[in-house]
Each structure stands twice: as structure tokens, then as C-alpha cells.
Design brief:
The chain is mainly alpha-helical. The chain is built from five helices and four strands, in the order ββαααβααβ. The protein has one domain: Hypothetical Protein Ta1238, Chain: A (Up-down Bundle), CATH 1.20.1200.10. Strands 1-2 form a two-stranded antiparallel sheet. Strands 3-4 form a two-stranded antiparallel sheet. The longest helix has 24 residues.
């Protein structure tokens, strides 16, 4: 759990406090219909799906990468919940550089990467593909929220790259588990 900058103790949850349609952020209360709550909910769903992926068979490299993504999501969630006032660790620009480097490293393993693939295979990689789709929704929610609450551009870019990172991570995990990709060769127009 993230700590509020104003206190040294973790936030306590009080049952019923949100019955009036409001909820706490790291910096004050907001209506539950606030765009920031949609972003935080979407990030929570991505993180939960990554947790589900970890419950399935995956190679150790994939597991380490998933845990890294989860840590980035926690940091980004705190940044959003503090309306951009929380400084992430690592900083957002460093996080973005690390994600870009991982994408490049993984993408290089898919030399003939053209067209669409059919998502199937093992449960862990399939859960990563669902997390990827959820991450795209979180990114859209953050773009929408950024119209009212300005965020560093790197925060938006991290979520954009994270979905691509998860895409390649899922594909590579499937291959490491002995699954072959199925290319979509005929798209009906």
C-alpha cells in the first residue's frame, strides 16, 4: 500500500465511508464518478489480471517481468491518486526507457512480425493478453482524465508502451511454453 506524503502510516480503510458516493485519493476525497477513479479501477484490473497470469505456468523470465510491470502499475497508480504529485520510483521517464528497452529486446525475437495473430495458447500468456487489452482501456481512461488533471506526458506514454510490452511478453511466454502462434491470413472485409 502506498503511503500518503503527509503521513508515515498507511491509509486505513473505513467501512461505509464511501456510502455517500465519494472516495479517498492520496490527496483528498473525490466523487466516485471522477475520471481518476476510472483510471485507478482500470489499473487495478490490469494488476489483478497479472496476478492471475502468475498463478499459471510461466517461465521464470516472464514471471520476473510481470512482477516488474506490477510494480510500475503500483507506482503509476500512486501518481494518479496523488493527481501527479507523487514522484514514482523509478521516475516515469526512467520507467519509460526501461519498458522501451524491454520491448526492443523482445520485439527483436519476432523478426518476421507482420499481420495479426490469433490469441490462443496457454493460460498464463492468455491472461497476459487480457491484461494487455485492459491496459489499453486504462490508457484511454488516463488520456480522458488528463483533460481535467494534467499529468506528465511520460505517465501517458508509460501506459501506452505497457500494453505493447504485455503483447510481446505474452507472445514470447507462449513460445517458451511450446505453443506456436497462429497468424491470421484471411481477414474478411
Amino acid at each position: 500500500m502506498h503511503k500518503d506524503k503527509k503521513t508515515t502510516t498507511p491509509h486505513r480503510f473505513t467501512p461505509g465511508r464511501g456510502d455517500d458516493g465519494t472516495t479517498d485519493l492520496l490527496v483528498g476525497r473525490v466523487e466516485k464518478t471522477n475520471d481518476l477513479i476510472a483510471v485507478l479501477g482500470a489499473l487495478d484490473e490490469v494488476n489483478a489480471m497479472l496476478g492471475l497470469a502468475l498463478s499459471f505456468d510461466l517461465d521464470e523470465t516472464s514471471r520476473r517481468e510481470i512482477i516488474a510491470v506490477q510494480q510500475y502499475i503500483y507506482q503509476l497508480s500512486a501518481h494518479v491518486a496523488a493527481r501527479g504529485a507523487y514522484e514514482t520510483h523509478p521516475p516515469l521517464t526512467a520507467m519509460l526507457a526501461m519498458i522501451d528497452a524491454d520491448i526492443a529486446r523482445t520485439q527483436a525475437q519476432f523478426v518476421e512480425d507482420a499481420g495479426f495473430i490469433q490469441y490462443d495458447g496457454r493460460s498464463g500468456p492468455a491472461a497476459l493478453q487480457v491484461a494487455r487489452a485492459m491496459c489499453r482501456r486504462a490508457e484511454l481512461a488516463l488520456w480522458h482524465a488528463s483533460h481535467q488533471t494534467p499529468f506528465e506526458p511520460a505517465a501517458l506514454h508509460v501506459l501506452n508502451r505497457m500494453s505493447l510490452w504485455l503483447f510481446y511478453m505474452a507472445r514470447l511466454a507462449n513460445i517458451k511454453l511450446g505453443q506456436h502462434e497462429h497468424k491470421v491470413t484471411d481477414i474478411v472485409s
